User: What shape does this take?
Amino acid sequence: MHQILRNLDKMITNRTFTMLKPDSVEKGNIGAILEKINAAGFKIVAMKLTQMTRRDAETFYAIHKERPFFGELVEYMTRGPIVAAVLEKENAVEDFRALIGATNPEEAAEGTIRKLYATSISENAVHGSDSDENASIESAFHFSGRDTF
Ligand code: IDP
Ligand code: MG
Assistant: This one.
């Protein structure tokens, strides 16, 4: 039983969820960003090109609904297709947040995806889950169990 729980825990902490946001797709940066993701040792477990509806974006970003930028965020995230993906690597959530860099590209470290490809704090190229729990919730929002094996 303990072995099973340990394995389950390991499985969860080994995955994160990402979106290549509409600006990345518009600018033709899908390939370059996926290259960085692969080069950093992440395996793509599930992936699709899709577009979020207003309701999808409002639900996905519900935690930010009282923030002044919420309307702008929903407009941005729904204006064109995104690439949604589930990624696997040891320590996935933390390592992926390090790979993408700070929310504001002006504060993002050299070589990070946001430093390289983001335009502004709003149009910042990629999403990365901020916890194992959210990685799991966000993956389930975009993919069914049979997509993520
Ligand atoms: P994160 O994506 O780095 O986790 P959050 O604070 O969770 O950053 O914000 C979610 C998203 O909302 C950001 O990625 C960005 O697109 C947008 N956002 C965050 N802060 C601002 C802001 O101050 N102005 C405009 N948009 C923002
Ligand atoms: Mg966040």
Notes: The chain has a mean pLDDT of 94. The chain has one domain: 2-147. DSSP finds eight helices and four strands in the chain. Residues 20 and 126 are 5 Å apart (CA to CA).
